[in-house]
Design brief:
This protein is mainly alpha-helical. It has helices spanning about 10-50, 55-75. It is about 60% helix and about 0% strand. Helix 1 runs antiparallel to helix 2. The longest helix has about 40 residues, at about 10-50. The mean pLDDT is about 85. InterPro entries: DUF4389 (IPR025498). Keywords: Membrane, Transmembrane, Transmembrane helix. This is Glucose-1-phosphate thymidylyltransferase.
Amino acid sequence: MENFTECKNSRIDILKRLLRTIICMIAFELVRLLLQAVVFFQYAYLLIFAKSSAPLRRFGNRLSAYTYELLRYATLNDNRKPFPFSDLPETSNCESPSSKIDFS
């Protein structure tokens, strides 16, 4: 069993973080809807042109990284404030997309 050190924070600081977390969870829901649209558009593009859209893949990858940051902050696993409290994740901070898509 791990020993956790008690952190002494003021209730005001906790409430500030809670407010930021609520904003992050609203942003998460909006980003989730946008990611769903990206997925459907990517598949429509793939069916029409028989290839994926590279800019859309990069955008989806960046949104996925942002979603990860939102959830890490909301679950108290990261103290770095996500957008809109800081910058969006850079493409260089994202794991690069696969070079080949496997449809099997």
